[in-house]
Amino acid sequence: MAGTVQTLTNLITPVTGTVHLRSLNSKSNNRSFDVINNSLIYRKARSITTTLIVRSHTNSDQIQGNGGPDPPARKSGILSFPAMVKPLWSFASNNFLPLALIGSVALGFANPSPGCLAHRYQFSKVSTFGIFIISGKKIKRLTLRSEDISAAAEAWPVGLFGLASILLLTPNLSRIILQIHLQPQEFVTGLALFSCMPTTLSSGVALTRLAGGNSALALAMTVTSSLLAILILPFSISKLIGCGLGASVPTGKLFRRLIVTLLIPLIFGKALRESFKGLAYFADNNRKLLSVLSVLLLSLVPWIQVSRSRSLLLMIKPAAFLIVVMMGMVLHLTLLSFNATSIRYLCALSGGSKSIFAKKENSTALLLVASQKALPVLVAVVDQLCSTFGEPGLLIIPCVAAHLNQIIMDSILVNYWNKNEQSLGNKTSVIKDD
Question: Which residue ranges does UniProt annotate as crossing the membrane (predicted)?
């Protein structure tokens, strides 16, 4: 206010001075002239003052808002709704799988009644059927580039070893896992079952592509291992898990159930894709939407099983949960170490640096795909075995944690590889410039 009065005084003083000089030079001191002149001066000063106050207010807003008047939301000190939602939406979109699985477990703990009702109406079987239909829809025709096809065909020894590692070699880790004593014992049994599963349906291929590996080879290993697992799993579970626990596994019944719940929906989804061009176009352009739907169907299973086993889970000590999570991490590190060591030995035995196993694209695909295990297949197996190896909810919980661990650990590994490759590329460009 003081600044405004001072500015107003500075503006008025020159004008009044000019009028006074004019009145001295003229010899007529007419009062009417003074009244009119003073009135005009007053109006002029008032208009200048109003303009100054408006400009002063605008400038203060510009200073506070860094160059422009503040929007209403910022003036009130509250962030606008889109500004708050966008980071949350981005985080949820990038981490939908862990959020959905953790949320389903938490929901089962908080309110088990809806999950028990869903179990009564066999929702878990419907969800497994839906997952593999979506997987069949997402499998494109083999219309890959000729370079990709030739690269996958050339690397057939790598793919063959990958299948042997997934279905025959790494399942033997279940013998070691079953020697661990932990209460409840279903936690250990669940991880032993998890080690017998085929590779993941999509994350292995996605991470291979992200790391610059042979994605065609990764896709071939994924599809082939999923199909062969229907034949091999009943016998490997019976021999490795059933004999270890002294339980009888209905091999023939499990085999038929796996055909119905895994193979038929996979073929059905693929047939739908090939029969309807519009559906294939929709699947190719909405892969993220289909992935979200697949994750939601997958999350139904832990939600139902946790709801059923809530009373038992509440009796378990938190230390047991922590131990089984650590066991899942050790299991994945063991798989990575085994496959990495195998790649080195195979390189040495088949030509060293000129070996097909020594190519970075092939070794990346083999290491990532052969070191992961599929949670949806395990869910289907546990659902078919019912309570042969214990409470289904207690069997699935450690495998959910192990599934999340392997995706997080492999994502960190791929990110590390990419950063190293980028730094090497920068060094090479600097050397060439020099």
Answer: 155-178, 190-211, 217-242, 289-306, 318-338
Classify 66 in phi/psi space as left (phi over 0), alpha (psi -120 to 50) or beta: left
| Residue ranges making up the domain that contains 245 | 154-276+317-418
> Mean pLDDT over residues 77-99, rounded?
70
Distance CA 173, CA 432 (A): 48
pLDDT in tens, 195-239: 999 999 888 888 998 899 998 899 889 989 988 999 999 999 999
Half-sphere CA count of 203, side-chain side, radius 13 A? 25
H runs (alpha helix) in 165-259: 173-177, 185-195, 203-210, 215-236, 243-245, 251-258
Read off the CATH number of the domain in which 215 is found. Answer: 1.20.1530.20
Contact in structure between 203 and 372 (CB atoms under 8 Å): yes
pLDDT reported for residue 81: 55
Asked if residue 65 belongs to a domain, the reply is: no
| Residue 213 included in any domain | yes
Q: How many domains are there within the chain? A: 1
How many whole angstroms from its chain centre is CA 193? 25
Kind and range of the H or E run holding 340: helix 318-349
Among 77-91, 206-220, 286-300, 366-380, the range scoring the smallest mean pLDDT is 77-91
Task: Decide if 51 is inside a domain.
Answer: no
Residue 114 lies in a domain: no
State residue 317 phi and psi, 5-degree precision: -70, 145
Task: Count other Cβ atoms within 10 Å, centred on residue 94.
Answer: 9
Cα gap 387→391, rounded to integer Å: 6
